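Exercise: predict the fold of this chain.
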Amino acid sequence: MSKESFVIRVESSRGMFRAEFPSNQATFGELQQKIQDKFGIAPDLQVLSLTRPSQPQFVKSNSKDTLAKIGLQHGQVLYLILATNQSEAVSTKQKEEKEAETDKDKPKAKSVTLKTSEWVNDPKHRVEDTGPKHVPFHEWIEDRQKKYANQPWNIDPPTFDYKPIKFENHVEFSKLPPNAVIKRQEYRHCDVIRFMDDKPIHKFKSEWEKSAEIQRAAYLIGRYELEENALDEKRKGKKLLYANVYALYIPPQKGEVYGVKLLKDPHEGLVDKVIAACGMERVGWTITTLDRSGKKYHGDIFMSGQEIFTAARLQEKYKNPNTGYSRFITLITRYGQKEAQGFQISDQGVAMIRQGLISPDEDRGFMKVNAAPPKVYLPAVINENKQIPQGETFLPDALLVNVLATLAKTIKPMFQHIHFPPNGTLEHLSKHLAYHKDKPKHLAFSDFSLLVFLPQVMDLELVCEVAQTVSKKEKLKPELEKRLDDALQRCLP
């Protein structure tokens, strides 16, 4: 883009693009033509707004009016409002263009998704997994135990110590950390993320798609379980580590067009106690995104730099304290697509972020090598056999570990309802009880969002007893039901 060019950014539920002109004397008709070329929507069917679609301020101009006359500024965002049929047509056009580009250029590796993994589960159909091959961690260790039977020091996975070194009077070369040579991880700590109940994730996705210009996130609540490998007949008898998901928890957050920021959760401790009472834990998180492909990214952005950074922090937070490894998963949910993509950040990637080597770049598809502070040594970062200078960027795909994503063949919900809102109040509690007044308590309270709300208004120990009973689908004992009724009378007006 030349310095003299004039750029208008056009944003829609199907992504954003830059319309570039020689100057602001270009006409509105020329802008409409660029939109038609990009999205396939004729000028007379284009609905443009100066403000977000929630409070639109429509652009009403003649096709011969200049952009300067309309009052548009260099870099300004216009919002293209798409009807349902238009959105579907744009999606089809983008898919066809992407397939054509893939045929022309060497494709990037793709992850196995909810859609493809369902085919994998069908023995009549086989789907080729063209993505990087990752071995279950326990198999990887077993193979190394055989290979290095006489060299036990080589069995454990590599450790990554990139801790910065301050230069003092004298630093021995042997004490400097090694360079960070980025390599794809051969193993994965969790193999499959499987939804045992499809209602929570479908509700989360459908509510987001009503206003998809703002991204959302939710924690995946479930259990890690080692089970027989039912996805690959060639590996029959082997086991996979599943993250079985039964519920979603929506934490405080700030959603933006290109991402979401998790905010401090004042109830985090209470929520985790209730989750544990149900015999579960936070096994991952899901984040939404619009389309964000581009040639400079060599196709899709699987995870943005900021998503990788946050995911690495979450993996660090929810790692196993005994092993130091994390099984925490990131699930990418895309607009208008049934399938989702599962990832982890490699152990090396987590270490590089933890020790300050890399950080998200302003360009969301890249990570940046951090500049060393004065009198501090940071190891060099090597990616694809090239050193990335400090302050420069690189595509972070090699830091990702693919995780299979699927729905359970047989749905096994833990909770009966998904009615209670994630930001519930006493008023919501009162309405919920009135609606379910004729049901036994273990059914009326069989709503995960309700259970994690209750510690805000009554005794935590009592709530945990109720949650434990409800999650097992057992009736409340008379003594427990009486204590619950007494607590409800105290907290409800």
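Check your answer against the key: The longest strand covers residues 217-228.
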